């Protein structure tokens, strides 16, 4: 019997967030291409954030040639910012994907210190929070074409807020004990009203969104990011 699929569409919170966002059009978004990546749970990737006066442009290595540790550790942020004509460059990673499959639209490829990465998204400056990533446990809004697949019986690592809204972990970072996200809940220090947990879905879960539909995301205190979804459908 084929495994049933639970399709869960990303949606905006009803909490009245001050920040709203739509896809921010840039020349890099022309020619975006869909990349379907399978068997990716635990796959290492890195991201480059190019920060300008009013937005943050993100490049991701997932559909390129990986993120070799020697090149990553040798990166010069000031040199990267100057090379790409932005105020500041910031790194995100290495991280490890928490889902089993993903379809993501990516754009032009750029080289960062010898590492190839493709354009992934443009976010408002508020997504940076204090400048070291989004402020922990303070939701923000993003918009991009992307879908995640979590296979039946494989864990989804979640944050739950005081109202019962559920956010699924996108990727875990290098400081998770033993590199095993099963240890994540014990490491986090959630803000008041928030809890961390892992659930085992009985059916495949697909979380899908588009650049025309802003979605809620949130970061934890270990600079890991989660996407809100309806876990009750």
Structure explained in plain terms:
- The chain is mainly beta.
- It is built from 3 helices and 17 strands.
- β11 (156-160) and β12 (166-169) form a beta hairpin.
- The longest helix has 8 residues, at 77-84.
- It is globular.
- The two termini are 21 Å apart.
User: What composes the largest sheet?
Assistant: 6 strands, antiparallel
| Beta-strand percentage range | 35-45%
Q: Structural class, please?
A: mainly beta
Low-confidence residue ranges:
1-28
Number of helices: 3
Helix/strand order? EEEEHHEEEEEEEEEHEEEE
Number of strands: 17
The portion of residues assigned to helices is under 10%
Q: Kindly provide the radius of gyration, computed on alpha-carbon positions and rounded to a whole number of angstroms.
A: 17 Å
Please tag this protein with its features.
233 residues; mainly beta; six-stranded antiparallel beta sheet; 17 strands; globular
Secondary-structure topology with pairs:
Elements: E1 5-9, E2 33-37, E3 44-51, E4 55-60, H1 69-73, H2 77-84, E5 88-97, E6 101-106, E7 109-112, E8 115-124, E9 140-142, E10 146-150, E11 156-160, E12 166-169, E13 171-172, H3 184-187, E14 195-199, E15 204-209, E16 215-219, E17 225-229
Parallel strand pairs: 1-15
Antiparallel strand pairs: 2-6, 3-4, 3-5, 4-8, 5-13, 6-10, 7-8, 9-16, 10-15, 11-12, 11-14, 12-17, 16-17
């Amino acid at each position: 019997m084929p495994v049933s699929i639970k399709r869960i569409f990303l949606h905006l919170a009803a909490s009245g967030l001050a920040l709203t966002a739509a896809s921010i059009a840039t020349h890099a978004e022309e020619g975006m291409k869909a990349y379907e990546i399978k068997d990716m749970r635990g796959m290492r990737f890195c991201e480059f954030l190019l920060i300008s006066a009013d937005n943050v442009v993100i490049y991701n290595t997932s559909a390129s040639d990986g993120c070799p540790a020697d090149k990553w550790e040798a990166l010069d942020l000031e040199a990267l910012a100057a090379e790409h004509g932005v105020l500041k460059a910031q790194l995100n990673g290495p991280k490890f994907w928490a889902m089993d499959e993903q379809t993501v639209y990516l754009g032009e490829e750029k080289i960062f210190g010898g590492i190839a990465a493709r354009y992934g998204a443009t976010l408002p400056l508020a997504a940076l929070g204090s400048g070291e990533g989004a402020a922990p446990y303070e939701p923000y809004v993003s918009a991009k074409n992307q879908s995640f697949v979590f296979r039946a019986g494989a864990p989804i690592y979640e944050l739950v807020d005081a109202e019962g809204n559920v956010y699924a972990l996108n990727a875990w970072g290098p400081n998770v004990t033993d590199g095993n996200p099963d240890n994540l809940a014990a490491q986090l220090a959630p803000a008041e009203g928030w809890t961390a947990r892992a659930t085992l879905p009985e059916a495949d879960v697909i979380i899908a969104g588009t650049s025309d539909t802003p979605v809620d995301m949130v970061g934890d205190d270990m600079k890991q990011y989660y996407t809100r979804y309806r876990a009750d459908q």
